[in-house]
Amino acid sequence: MPDHAQPTFPQTGGCQCGAVRYELREPPLGIWACHCSLCRKQSGSAFGLSMSVALDALVFTRGDPGSWTRQAESGHWLDCLYCCDCGSRLIHRRHENDGRQTLKPGTLDDTSWVVPERHFFTESALDWVRPLFPAGTDSAS
Ligand SMILES: [Zn+2]
Ligand SMILES: [Zn+2]
Predict the structure, then answer these.
(1) Separation of 2 CA from ligand 1 center, angstroms?
(2) Which ligand is nearest to the CA of 125?
(3) Quick one: which ligand is closest to 65's CA?
(4) Coil, strand or helix: which one is 41?
(5) What's the CA-to-centroid distance between 133 and ligand 1, angstroms?
(6) For residues 72 and 32, what is the distance between their CA atoms, to the nearest angstrom?
(7) What pTM did the predictor assign?
(8) Residues 5-49: pLDDT tens digits?
(9) Which CATH number describes the domain made up of 11-124?
(10) C-alpha 107 to ligand 2 mean position (Å)
(11) Which of these, 16, 7, 8, 10, lies nearest to 90 by C-alpha position?
(12) E strands present in the chain
């Protein structure tokens, strides 16, 4: 993590309406931005932000998220957890349990320490976000 990021844990977060709340109890395993069209569609914004966290590092403290399942281009099946009231996407989980899950970190109450370490699919990034990453750093996989 970058030097300026010194979060303490647990960190709290939740959906836009507050019906679903969670606690993140351990530091993340990684933070990245994805500039593919699907992440743009999902986020409703210029790109998707993702934070990998251990499965047991995140605990729901209020509400029960709904789930929608889709197949990723990689062939993996993903459960996409969201608030049933306001629709905020919260978490993505692969069907085959690999011990981690992907939190949408914009749902944290404090996002000051959320800095992506990598950018994926930069070739499809919107022109005005390109200054966010140096040219030639595309790590699309
Ligand atoms: Zn909600
Ligand atoms: Zn993507």
Answers:
(1) 31
(2) 2
(3) 1
(4) helix
(5) 32
(6) 17
(7) 0.89
(8) 579 999 999 999 999 999 999 999 999 999 999 999 999 999 999
(9) 2.170.150.70
(10) 18
(11) 16
(12) 11-14, 21-24, 30-34, 48-54, 58-62, 66-71, 77-82, 89-94, 100-103, 118-120
